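Need a sequence for this fold. Nothing fancy.
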């Protein structure tokens, strides 16, 4: 639902005693004001606009109303969703009859940018920019309504030819996010965009640190205080299982307690999905040691982790996400927590994300099988041969 009305606000009065007449645009309960070129005395405005006699203010407002109605009608006919933003843009710049990929990208990135800090991280937004630019480089600045399955297959072929399977799968998910944004908004109308395009995701073995390797990080004497601080942060991350951006956002007020157990219950910065993780006494000691000031850039953190691995004698490629893997592996395979519980602790959107951390050892599998299948020996002793 949308509506156009007019007002003249006393708060906008200038030195000449006049205030601009404003168009009030309301779309689905969201209101916006658009200043017009005519000015009147606010005290006289209501008298002029309600006067049965014709006057210049009534004529002017009615003319602007008709132009606005015409513009919004054209906007509706173009298939553009009617929002406060699209209406304001159309009134300012006119209705575009040709909506290109660059137009779609601009709208896609504007909306994505507004999500930063709530359910989208800056690195993720930067990937949106980079991948949508690739799509435009491959297809050119095409009109959205002309995009077909052939175009999408071309994008897939170009990306697949220059990337490894896992990288292609990751970038392809963003391509689909971008293209589906155009479909949802009625800009791209082809119905079989992804026919005959298959994306294979190969399961890969997840690396993690053993408890012995974690203990080496704890007990190594480092050459500088900065390295010791990062080593402590690494132990903290392995204890909490948080992604880098969530780890850096911890503050004292996040710590809750129930039944004697301290925990953090928040939403992930990347996805907005809720996570719940238990804060051990060791983790709490580290947070208090640094007065919750554990801030460090992701690049510096990973650079220091490489040095820590070297000094602690760890040959694995130590990075921030490996510590999150370590937490997940330990909870699933050493502590034997339920996969749904671990998924909640990690803030995963579905169990599939958590499942690839479940790598039980042969001895554990055999032990659980024997326990599940243990039966009393009911074999008759007088069987015939």
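Here you go.
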């Amino acid at each position: 639902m949308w509506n156009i009305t007019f007002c003249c606000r006393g708060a906008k009065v200038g030195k000449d005693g006049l205030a601009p007449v404003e168009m009030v645009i309301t779309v689905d309960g969201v209101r916006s004001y658009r200043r017009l070129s005519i000015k009147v005395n606010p005290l006289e405005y209501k008298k002029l606009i309600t006067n049965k006699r014709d006057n210049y203010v009534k004529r002017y407002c009615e003319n602007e109303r008709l132009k606005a109605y015409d513009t919004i009608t054209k906007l509706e006919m173009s298939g553009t969703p009617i929002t406060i933003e699209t209406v304001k843009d159309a009134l300012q710049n006119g209705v575009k009859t040709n909506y290109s990929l660059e137009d779609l990208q601009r709208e896609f990135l504007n909306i994505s940018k507004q999500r930063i800090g709530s359910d989208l991280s800056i690195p993720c937004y930067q990937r949106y920019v980079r991948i949508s630019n690739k799509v435009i480089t491959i297809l050119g600045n095409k009109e959205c309504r002309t995009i077909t399955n052939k175009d999408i297959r071309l994008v897939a072929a170009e990306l697949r030819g220059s990337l490894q399977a896992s990288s292609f799968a990751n970038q392809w998910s963003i391509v689909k996010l971008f293209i589906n944004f155009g479909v949802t908004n009625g800009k791209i109308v082809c119905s079989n965009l992804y026919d005959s395009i298959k994306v294979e995701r190969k399961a890969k073995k997840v690396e993690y640190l053993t408890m012995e390797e974690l203990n080496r990080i704890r007990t190594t004497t480092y050459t500088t205080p900065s390295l010791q601080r990062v080593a402590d942060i690494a132990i903290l991350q392995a204890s909490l299982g948080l992604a880098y951006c969530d780890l850096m956002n911890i503050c004292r007020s996040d710590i809750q307690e129930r039944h004697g157990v301290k925990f953090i219950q928040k939403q992930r910065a990347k996805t907005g999905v809720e996570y719940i993780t238990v804060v051990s006494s060791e983790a709490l000691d580290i947070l208090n040691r640094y007065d919750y000031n554990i801030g460090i850039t992701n690049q510096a953190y990973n650079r220091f982790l490489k040095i820590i691995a070297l000094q602690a004698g760890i040959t694995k490629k130590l990075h921030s996400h490996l510590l999150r893997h370590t937490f997940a592996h330990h909870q699933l395979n050493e502590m034997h927590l339920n996969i749904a519980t671990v998924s909640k602790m990690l803030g995963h959107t579905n169990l599939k994300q958590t499942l690839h951390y479940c790598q039980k050892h042969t001895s554990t599998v055999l032990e659980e099988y024997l326990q599940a299948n243990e039966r009393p020996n009911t074999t008759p002793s007088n069987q015939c041969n």
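For context: Residues 2-93 form one domain.
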